[in-house]
Amino acid sequence: MKVRVIGAGLAGCEAAWQLACRGIKTELWEMKPNKKTPAHHTDMYAELVCSNSFKAARINSAAGLLKEEMRRLNSLLMKCADESRVPAGGALAVDRVLFSQMVTEKIRSHPNITVIERELVEIPSNGINIIATGPLTSDDLAASIKKLFGDSLSFFDAAAPIVTAESIDMNFAFYASRYGKGDGDDYINCPMNKDEYELFHSELVNAERTPLHGIDVSNPKVYEGCMPIEVMAQRGSDTIRFGPMKPVGLTDPRTGHRPWAVLQLRKENAEGSMFNLVGFQTNLKFGEQKRVFGLIPALKNAEFVRYGVMHRNTFINSPKLLTKTFALKENPNIFFAGQITGVEGYMESGASGLIAGINAAMTYYGKSPLVLPDYTMIGALSDYISDPTVTDFQPMGANIGILPPLAEPIRDKQLKAQAHAERSLRFFDEEITKFLEGEKI
Fold first, then answer.
1. pLDDT of 332 strictly over 90
2. Residue 382 belongs to what domain range?
3. pLDDT tens column, 143-154
């Protein structure tokens, strides 16, 4: 039986890896380098188009627990992420290029994976197929999916700009992590006083934006986690000052006081030659980005190596179509994985590919699927995207709120998250080892 994975993004690469490591000859279809979406810039797989951060690293957090569960399931993405890590305080951030290079090399060198560099425009009718074409599914395939299943939705997603390190004016910036977390110099902080901030805010909300083209241009939906900074700023003069530009936990060494507002810059690569404007996803025209962001004193002469962009993000009505295993309810030989299922985030996408890949392998061998309990983070996400009671389906990332309550309520947030993590990892310690050894859970 032929096994295919469509799309070599985070979810597709993880799915193909899980299949291949279980001895299954797998075709990985990828339209790059022959065709790219507006958000992609390289020919490599698992390209990070929005940010180089995989969110919190600590296990007693939703994002950290998700990543640890993936490690316990022998995730390719987590192995590459851990080996390409760059300093980012309490977050797991990676050298964007090195990460993609590592994933690409692992995929291309696996003897059970055959890469087919061609666009697939419709779901094959034979074999086992995993559709992992991501939020930027090509128009032809998206039309095919919509024709087959209906309820195809779309919204717009935004990416933040990247600047060179040498162009940052350190006379108006300082190294520090909030509350001294990390090594203390993981971020470059660009402080602003009240007058500077108010001018910046005024210019930001009035700056010219790039016209959106696509099926949702009349009423684009934007996922809150990637809300353009200019859209967020329109909500009020202090909205971004209490959001991505919050100054809490930081002291400007020039004044000895907390700034009025702060833009943080995070390393894009291990060398520290490029920095990402944290939380500054944007749809401003390129010239406007240089002008408006240049009002931040430390960026007055900034050299942009990539401007922020906004792109279409497509996802299916998963609660109607999918099971907890990420297989179609009406056809167990067709799986979906990644952000097209409505999971939101890099590692959430990877986790769905991991589960889809494992369960496609179980289907191939005629074995029972892996269904993680809802008190694990991956299990809770699987439950969310397959819950038939959900009527207004929207993308969801890892968060403690989707986990079932603890047996004993805990008020402290950190202790509560720790208890959730311990409950989940007990299951992995007790059961997943047996599963990976070939025993049925």
1. yes
2. 3-152+316-436
3. 888 888 865 666
